[in-house]
Write a structure and sequence with these properties.
Blueprint (H helix, E strand, L loop, with lengths): L1 E9 L3 H18 L4 E9 L2 E11 L2 H9 L2 H5 L2 E9 L3 E2 L4 E2 L7
Antiparallel strand pairs: 1-3, 1-4, 2-3, 5-6
Length: 104
């Protein structure tokens, strides 16, 4: 299973769309929580301006499919979505330093 980091930036109507679709989005993530390594909002001065979602998938297409069914995505909340394969190699979340010397 690979990890894919999605960097999603809200569009101009982000505040309204977030509020309108938050419950459905949270329910969707909870239903598929096993597919997420981590997810949460990006904030500027305490105000949500986007999201980061690290989604597990056999390949990028599978991870994109999971994101593509998210109510926030379907509502058009995110004006920009970038994706990169992600290798978690160091830090508290991965238990210190794992595979770091291999040149991740």
């Amino acid at each position: 299973m690979r990890l894919y980091l999605f960097h999603c930036l809200d569009g101009d109507d982000g505040a309204r769309l977030r509020l309108e679709h938050r419950d459905a989005h949270l329910a969707y993530v909870a239903t598929h929580i096993g597919d997420y390594a981590v997810a949460g909002p990006l904030k500027t001065d305490g105000v949500p301006v986007g999201s980061v979602l690290v989604i597990k998938g056999a390949d990028e297409a599978a991870a994109r499919a999971r994101l593509g069914d998210d109510p926030y995505f379907l509502a058009g909340l995110w004006a920009e979505v970038g994706v990169h394969e992600f290798a978690a190699v160091a830090g508290e979340w991965v238990g210190g330093r794992r595979g770091y010397a291999k040149g991740a």
